[in-house]
Amino acid sequence: MTLSPDLVFSLEIGAVAAVAAILGSMLGLGGGVFLVPILTLFFGIDPKFAVGASAVVVVTNSVVGSTNHLRIRFTNPRLAMLLQIATATGAIAGALYGVVADPRVIYGVFGAVLVYAAVSMVARRERTVTAPPPDTPDPLRLGAAYRDPAIRAEVGYIPVKPGWGLGVGAGAGVISGMLGVGGGVVMVPAMNLLMRVPVKAAVGTSTFMVGITSVATAFVFYSQGFIDPTLVVPAIIGVFLGGQIGSRLTRRIRAQRLALLFALILLYLGASLLLRAFGIAMPGQA
What we know:
mainly alpha; two-stranded antiparallel sheet; 2 strands; globular
């Protein structure tokens, strides 16, 4: 039996979305970091439609991934809602620019963001967060704790520098709105390195945040006609499956072991997008 081209296309989109969701959930990146470049580079899809589809997908990925992260207390809801004020505002501004931007600008900015993410994954070292003393001040009541199955220990922490976190969150929101990536590519390292949040808590909190941020992005792109159901529907199905797998793997796998592999993937995709911004396509790409 021969499958119709439309069905084959839907299956391919679903499979790609599932892989993107697994990777995105494991590192709190939202999935769009992987999905948008693949759709534009290998499927030849207009970047604005890819960003619109990614925004919807990131919302789905966040809902699925956050369910498990909340249950095992990797998510810090109070910290997420504080930072969300800045990220949601930035997302609206970024999306409004993204729908009118030259596609080459989207390629260039996205490529630069991916190269930054790849370099930061390799160069950075996860900040080791020790349990704060009992008398540590916590005026905003942002402190939280969770049990990490990978090390079989309780991990407690109190985020610091919330003002800096809000500033970074605004920038992450702009990137999220323009590129449909959820902002986790900026927020995860910012929470870990700047605010001294353990990486798994940063991932869980980011996964919760990117869904809310991407709702604003999806609404703007939908209002401008850049949401294509033939992309969104199979992608959502793939993300629903991949998001559950990724959030469960996060519990057992040390994230730093995956950093090099993910960095190489992001570096390849980032370099490809930068070349595409100048009208150059690498072999095998659409």
